[in-house]
């Protein structure tokens, strides 16, 4: 079985932390004997735009071809336009780049597994028509909750990607339900999961880990991991910890909000910057609690990782988080609420709101439903159905 994994983000030697959840699942497929090739098209702005604005001159510093952990990854360039997912869908341009890569490297996939409705799903729909290669589509969150609302064209692109797919998977039950409401297509809930063996609790003491990372010993640490953007609720987090004595927020990641966060909260926050993915676990273990106060989410991998490590988690009532928290969803807070976030931080740190029952209950949910090694078996079942369907059509 030959799978072409089509995505807009995948780890590289220069950016090993980007899209790690893709690589996790691909590695699980390899263990099952599935042959996987990855195509991750690289957006490049046209020359005229690069002349107009400095930021448009920047090209992603990634190799066009590399082998990562036994998997060949191709990154063919395609012409990108600013705000294209809002008003100038790149489906045809991405599809052209993918088809050229398929021809150039003599690839012969049985089907495509596309991730995110736009641009990968839209491109897969074009490829299906032109090259008769079927595709599955996995929806991750923003491609359902955010991008289709931008314009009529964006919604049409979403609808086309979903309706033409041989199978549609989602990383949360909420996304499956919403996709059905929006398109009348029945999507299947199948999370990618995490490698649970990598997130067993470490015996080393928290203070020892903090010393290694250069983090303060005497303060309570509230850790965030992700891109530093407003939509992650980081301004609210900075405001929440600003006046809390003995509490500091540690921001692990990079993004345009870094300077504003520092100006807003001063010494109440620490900017750790981008770290290697295998070091994220250390920051989680060094934390007194992890928080992800996002405005929207699909099924954030880092929350699963924190829960697998039995680290207390403050998260917002968005995306797939209510179903993940299940009987404990009363612990979730509303997005954009600094007051609720501050109250939750205090309750977690000083009132034992996250007790052993909560810790063990959520830990068990992750181990039961979100194991990448277990869930890959269900993914292969979906692959076999697509293969059987495409063979019968031929």
Write up this protein.
A hairpin with a 2-residue loop joins strand 4 (about 65-70) and strand 5 (about 70-75). The strands form three sheets. This protein has an eight-stranded mixed β-sheet, with helices on both faces. Strands 13-12-11-14-15 form a five-stranded parallel β-sheet, with helices on both faces. Helix content is about 45%, strand content about 15%. The two termini are about 15 Å apart. The chain has about 400 residues and is of the alpha/beta class.
Average pLDDT, to the nearest integer? 92
Oligomer designation: single chain
The helicity comes to 40-55%
- The general outline is globular
Largest sheet: 8 strands, mixed
How would you classify the helix and strand content by structural class? alpha/beta
How many individual β-strands? 15
Strand content: 15-25%
């Amino acid at each position: 079985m030959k799978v072409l994994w089509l995505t807009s983000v995948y780890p590289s030697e220069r950016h090993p932390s980007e899209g790690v959840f893709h690589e996790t699942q691909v590695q699980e497929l390899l263990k099952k004997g599935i042959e996987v090739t990855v195509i991750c098209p690289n957006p490049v702005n046209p020359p005229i735009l690069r002349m107009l604005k400095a930021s448009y001159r920047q090209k992603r510093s990634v190799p066009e071809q590399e082998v990562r952990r036994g998997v060949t990854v191709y990154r063919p360039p395609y012409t990108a336009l600013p705000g294209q997912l809002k008003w100038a869908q790149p489906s045809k341009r991405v599809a052209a780049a993918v088809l050229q890569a398929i021809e150039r490297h003599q690839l012969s996939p049985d089907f495509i597994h596309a991730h995110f409705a736009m641009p990968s799903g839209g491109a897969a729909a074009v490829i299906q028509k032109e090259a008769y290669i079927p595709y599955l589509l996995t929806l991750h969150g923003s491609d359902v909750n955010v991008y289709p609302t931008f314009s009529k064209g964006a919604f049409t692109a979403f609808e086309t990607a979903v309706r033409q797919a041989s199978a549609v998977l989602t990383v949360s039950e909420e996304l499956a339900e919403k996709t059905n409401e929006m398109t009348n297509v029945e999507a299947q809930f199948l999370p990618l999961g995490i490698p649970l063996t990598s997130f067993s609790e470490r015996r080393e003491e928290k203070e020892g880990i903090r010393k290694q990372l250069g983090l303060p010993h005497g303060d309570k640490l509230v850790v965030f991991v992700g891109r530093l953007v407003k939509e992650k609720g980081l301004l609210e987090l900075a405001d929440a910890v600003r006046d809390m004595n003995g509490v500091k927020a540690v921001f692990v990641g990079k993004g345009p909000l870094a300077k504003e966060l520092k100006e807003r909260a001063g010494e109440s926050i620490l900017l750790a910057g981008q770290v290697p993915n295998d070091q994220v676990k250390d920051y989680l273990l060094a934390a007194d609690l992890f928080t992800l106060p996002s405005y929207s989410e699909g099924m954030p991998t880092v929350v699963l990782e924190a829960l697998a490590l039995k680290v207390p988690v403050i998260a917002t009532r968005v995306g797939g988080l209510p179903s993940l928290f299940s009987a404990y969803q009363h612990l979730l807070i509303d997005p954009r609420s600094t007051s609720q976030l501050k109250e939750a931080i205090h309750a977690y740190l000083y009132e034992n709101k996250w007790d052993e029952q909560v810790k063990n209950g959520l830990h068990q949910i992750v181990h039961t439903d979100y194991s990448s090694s277990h869930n890959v078996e269900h993914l292969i079942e979906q692959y076999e159905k697509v293969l059987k369907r495409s063979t019968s059509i031929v």
